[in-house]
Design brief:
Structural class: alpha+beta
Distance between the termini: 12 Å
Length: 135
């Protein structure tokens, strides 16, 4: 084994892991697109946080009650730069099989196409590194 192989070998599991994570996100997006239902939810709390640069982020937590279920509370993983008024109503798309798997309208995360492309790119990188280093 030479130095290049030793230095580049750790990138194989990293690429494979990131690829797997991206495929899981793609599956979640696919489930929400095909099985998701829209519902009106109420913003019940807004958490103030900061991003990596120290700029403020405001992340809403919503509450909604799916049909034949108890109340569900979900916090957006994506924040906004400006304060959010609450209580207010917002549309939420949720997965009836797992109501906590939900997306708030206007608080986007990477979509299905972006997640799929990230997964494919990570898989290709892992395979390319493996073949380049060990064949």
């Amino acid at each position: 084994m030479n130095v290049d192989q030793i230095l580049m070998a750790p990138f194989i599991p990293v690429s494979a892991g990131l690829s797997g994570w991206a495929f899981v996100k793609a599956w979640t997006n696919f489930r929400l697109l095909t099985q998701g239902q829209w519902i009106e939810a109420e913003i019940v709390y807004v958490r103030e946080d900061t991003d990596g640069d120290g700029d403020p982020r405001f992340c809403p937590e919503v509450a909604f009650t799916p049909q034949d279920s108890d109340e569900v509370r979900v916090e957006s993983k994506v924040g906004r730069l400006y304060p959010i008024d609450y209580p207010a109503r917002i549309r939420v798309r949720y997965d009836p099989a797992k109501p906590r798997r939900a997306r708030l309208q206007g608080y986007g995360e990477p979509g299905l196409f972006a997640s799929l492309m990230s997964g494919v790119a990570g898989a290709f990188a892992a395979v390319w590194l493996f073949l380049d280093l060990f064949t």
